[in-house]
Amino acid sequence: MASGFTEQLMARARLLRETGGFSILSVLIAIVLMGVGVAAVSSTTVYLLSLRTEAAQRSAATALAVAYMEDVKTRPAQSVVSKAMEKVDEIGTLNASGDYTRNLVVSPGPIVNSKIVQVEVTYPTGLGRRGKIELVTIIYSGL
Fold it and tell me: Which of 37, 84, 139, 143 is the most exposed place for a label (fewest CB within 10 A)?
């Protein structure tokens, strides 16, 4: 009788093996591979979000530089002089705790009565680094 019972168990075990079930090892390997895939996707998402933030800050810095340059170009050429670096917020208002800095550098131009005007705006890019936007133009005070 015992041998009949053992034969039944062996037959059942053979049947289970032949039906193609998953072993614990194959399930663990699948979980590890899924974890690696999820980690890769999440790190890529974080990187893309940081790029998007930096692009927005670069765009704001460019707008600040253009607006400041336009303001400088409306002044009489004789009154345009270099100005020390100053902190501003994202709309260009002077603010000691602003994230952006702007600087105006004026040097003699290539011809008489001209000046080279350079506007520099720095902006935060993340991880303690700063980016820089630089615009240069020449102004001339005619007769």
Answer: 143
